[in-house]
Design brief:
The structure is a single chain. The chain is mainly α and about 90 residues long. It is built from three helices and no strands. It has a domain of about 35 residues. Helix content is about 55%, strand content about 0%. The chain is elongated and about 80 Å long.
Length: about 90
């Protein structure tokens, strides 16, 4: 295996992390850097895959007595009531 010698400038926090790993594993700094670069170049393949998230729909429906065809009308009435309250408060204040 051939090697290429190069100068690499690392951020201080990364250099510290790599040095810590090197000490803990008892490997050379060069070995730790090469291993980290290899993992990074492989992408996220080393990250454990989570199982697919599955959504199971459930029919909830409306309570009896609720006319679903009049829900928009109810919403409009509630909005108008809120507007009247705000206008009455503005006139007083």
């Amino acid at each position: 295996m051939s090697c290429m010698r190069t100068t690499l400038t690392l951020d201080d926090d990364l250099a510290r992390q790599l040095q810590d790993i090197s000490r803990r594993k008892g490997e050379s700094f060069k070995q730790v850097v090469n291993a980290a670069l290899r993992r990074g170049l492989q992408g996220e393949k080393t990250v454990a895959r989570l199982p697919k998230f599955k959504v199971t729909p459930k029919a909830c429906g409306f309570r009896s007595g609720v006319d679903v065809l009049r829900l928009n009308q109810l919403n409009d009435e509630l909005e108008m009531e809120e507007l009247r309250r705000k206008l009455a408060g503005a006139e007083r204040g």
